[in-house]
Fold these 2 entries.
Entry 1:
Amino acid sequence: MTADLETGRLSALRRYTILDTQPERAFDDLALLASQICGTPMALITLVDADRQWFKSRVGMTAHETSRAVSFCAHAIHQSELFIVPDASLDARFRDNPQVTGGPKIRFYAGAPLVTPGGDALGTLCVADSVPRELTDDQKHALSAIRRQVEAQLELQRNLIVLERMLAERDHAEAEQKRLFDELNTAHENVRKLSGMMPFCSTCQFTMTIPADPRAIPTVTDGVTQVLTEKGWSEPDVMAVELALQEAVANAIRHGCGGDATKQLQCSVNCDDAGEVVITVRDPGAGFDPATIPNPLDPDNVFKPSGRGIFLITGLMDEVQYADGGRELQMRKRKPEAS
Amino acid sequence: MTLKERRVGDVTILHLTGRLVLDDGHDELRHKIDELADQERVSLIVDLKDVTYIDSCGVGLLIAKYVSLRRKRGDVKLLNLTARSHHLMEISKLLDVFETFESEDHALASFTREAQA
């Protein structure tokens, strides 16, 4: 056998991942059958590795493996059919073999190569005896038949391994598909929020239109909160901007849109790296004169249930301006220097 | 927002969880306090420990119900304000209006003292 063929044969053997595995009933039954049909005290299913032969199944042998140098099977795998040695003590190739001169004192050997569909002989199904003998034609046919069963079992095991790998790959692919689907959903959800645009804007400047529905307020406030947090704003300052924005959007919904959820309002945010956030909220309403809004701290107003929104916005932000007759509110806040 | 009601003697304790803002928790709390007022249960402690967010609408509701229960000789007292809620009440100058407590026992005791006065 050339080095290339031997390399290919060993590669094929590795693909079956059978070396050094636990004994299996399916193989043990076939070895036992071979032993009983051939009337030999020893039967083996061997796999010939680079420098050893390893026994997947063994009848009448205690060793798990032997050196390839003393292996009968290493000869048998080069044959296309049964390899028979009637009396090893008379055969020049084996008479000095330690398995012949010492335990288990092999005299008779018959091995059938286990060949893959690709033509690689991985090992043998073999029977052996400590006395010289021959096999009848029926025994030879039976041994060949059992050999085919061993080969079929090897293919079955390999197909199971391939199937398991394919199932694992399928599970992995399904998990990956689910992960991507979840990511896509999250991305889709984020795009609905201003923060989803963060990775795409170096200075975070964006505008979004939302329905005049209080349930839409977090769509804006959550995004701005995340942007400011990402830019290193302190929690109290983030809370201040978040609350001012909540109040501004709530006012635009209640007063600018009259609570009509079919109307829309526009919110723009500009957050630069210098540490300033400028927020503009615009509604489609009739507008108002901020100067007419009563001071909620006046004793006459302090117990009133409303009228605190603009007061809070003014107190929480550094600068607040109205434009377009009160339809547009612009507010800005600078990130305080870290102390 | 979720709301849990508990009674200790004549005092009702409302434990709020979540957001108390426009369209979230606002109507539920108003209805609950109106219902209590109809039953003459006018001594109220509002536990804000688990209120994560409160805006001027939430504050406005609390002040409105404070006024209505005071008219019925009751009171609304606030328990366990978070830093966020405390800040909002402070800049709204409402800490001068509401009695606030960090201990439920103290809040309950304040009602007892008033009853004895």
Note: Residues 137-191 of chain A form the longest helix (55 residues).
Entry 2:
Amino acid sequence: MEGGSGPGKNEVAVKLGSSDHLLGLMTTRRDELAAAWIEVVSQTLAGRISRAELDQELHELYAALVEALRAGGLDASGEHYTEVRALLAELSRNRARQGFRPAETAVSLFALKRGLERLLDDGSADDVAAYLALSRLTDELGMFTVDSFAASREQIISSQAEELLELSTPVVKLWDGVIGVPLVGTLDSARTQVVMEKLLQELVDTGSAHAIIDITGVPAVDTEVAQHLLKTVVAARLMGAECIVSGIRPQIAQTIVALGIEFGDIVTKATLADALRHALRRSAQRAALSVGDAA
Amino acid sequence: MSDRVPILRIGENLLVSIQIDLDDQTVMNLQEDLAAQVVKYGARGVVIDITAAEIVDSFVGRMLSTIASVSRLLDAETVVVGMRPAVAITLVELGLSLGGVRTALNLEQGLAILAKRASAGAAGR
């Protein structure tokens, strides 16, 4: 019975043994190893992060690593490594924000191997096993670091894009019953979609019967952009509001004609002031009519 | 048997407030009922309030146009009010422009349009 399950047990024993020896090394020669590790990392980061900060970060990580190793062995995706993974995620996030490259982030972990190398002078079988164990561990955690680095950078980029979108599409109230959208910058489908939805929602919220889309700040108009503009105007009309397009610059007007885009019966004005005057005149006509009703 | 949308009378105008998701049969019934009521009460205006409608498909869109044309034949102006932005965008994407249908942002503005038309008509008479 003992003999039947022998090989499996032996394998387990070797695994446990190696991580035990690694744990022993990491505990007894803690200061030496940590110092060597920090030394290597700070060399690669070349003073772009303060030594004290690095010290604190890596010591924290080191302590968590030893703790996890003691409780959970080499299972880097296990629950005992939650703390380590949280620290690594935070480290990657900080590095991403500070503009480090992914390699420079991952090296923080891989350098631990280099630190261990210096301690293995006699090269006994136990030492080799410990080195291999650490190697496996850092590989797995290194992958995790790169992953979370990419994830946090992705997040930063998308939140910036969102902020930019929010920034660049204000809907302003110009007068009672007249709202305006000053468009600045290049229009693409995503942006036009946002502009469209914001404008239409604002029409509903304010009950404004007139909207002015000012494209003075739009550098170029192609068929796609024109198509989006036309759609917005038609959608506003469907909801019972009138849209005026203003601020078409001379060369853009020429482009539009050259492209053969038909604006149809959509009111266009050269400047925002003209558009506002037109809108006010229209609403004044309405007002005059309703005053006439009352009289 | 599908639901029937109630039609309310306010003075010379008829008000239809759509509170349910419209299926094809309901819209067909609405068209018939509206035509009958316009004649019965001699209505001058029809207001269709679609504030609560989340979805307007191409069939319903076309029927709104048809209702407007039928009502016009019976001397009543149709105003569709309270269309949501999402609905408007969908209709535009579908390529429907609801030709011949007057629209207004809300019920108040819709009734104002009808009142204006009524007073213009009264002056003309």
Note: The first strand of chain B starts at residue 7 and ends at 10.
